[in-house]
Amino acid sequence: TLSDSDIDRLGRKTLAGGELDRESGLLLAGTGDEELLRLFSWANRVREANFGNEVTFCSIAAGKVGACSEDCNWCGQSARYQTHVTRSSQRTAATALVQGAEQACRNGAGCFCIVNAGRGPGEEDLEAFETAQTHIRAAGLAPACASLGEIDEETAQRLRASGVHRYNHNLETSRRHFSRVVSTHGYENRLSTLKAARAAGLSLCCGGIFGIGETWEDRVDLALTLREEVKPEVVPLNFRHPIPGTPLGNHPALSPLECLKIIAIFRLLLPSANLKIAGGRVHNLRSLQSWIFSAGATSVMVGNYLTTCGRDVQEDTRMVADLGLKLVPAFAKTRHAR
Question: Lower Cβ count inside 10 Å, N or C end of the chain?
């Protein structure tokens, strides 16, 4: 059983620059509800040591929606499921993507990402993305990040030439659990894409989704794979928003406290990563959304998601201000001194 002294010991080790192993992560996973505030306190101290009082916003827009060939069990964009999302592919006009980038800028978002449904981009997808980038840059805005599915190094180089700084491709869960929720491609496919993006000089945004039937072992193993194999600058943490018609549409939801516990443990296992709370925040965290920063988060996705709605950005801006945090367009390359 995890004791207060165990949490203190592991928190001090992380704060001093030590690295927690798998056994330590699983020990923290045993934190009971009565010990959560102590866990959050250490996660918050580690966040402050690495990022001070700074937090960031990011926004996304769909470049292509629906008709995805893959069968990720939680996703409403798969053509295999009857959901509220159209089963035919729809591409967003470049002008609409520019408007999305402009809105992201007004919202204080430090990055704007164009996300395509589908396993990977074809030539038309790449040309459409490049056209959108041209229009975005012509509007005087920073180029968009990209999340287009599987890519090779040649495609990654092409994206970089268009202005892409960061590529998003999530591992979603552990190697062990992945094949239980996705059958149309493998874990190594995802790792290959991340390696190609890194080889092309792109920064990486890579995390996972929780509430898809995974265990605490799966969660800890995902964090360690990210730390040891991927080393992403940004780690988005998504919480499943149930989509009727998907295989996990009726799966039990996570509680707000379990979501916060996930955030805190990821902070202790990945002390210097930018932890971004993304999809499912409103649905899963509900009235405890402001606690994400006390649990170790440093970033939040604002505005709408791909097929679900977020909350009013003014509420998120007010939340950050009320907490005494500073919204910045991007973190400095060097972290705060410990």
Answer: N
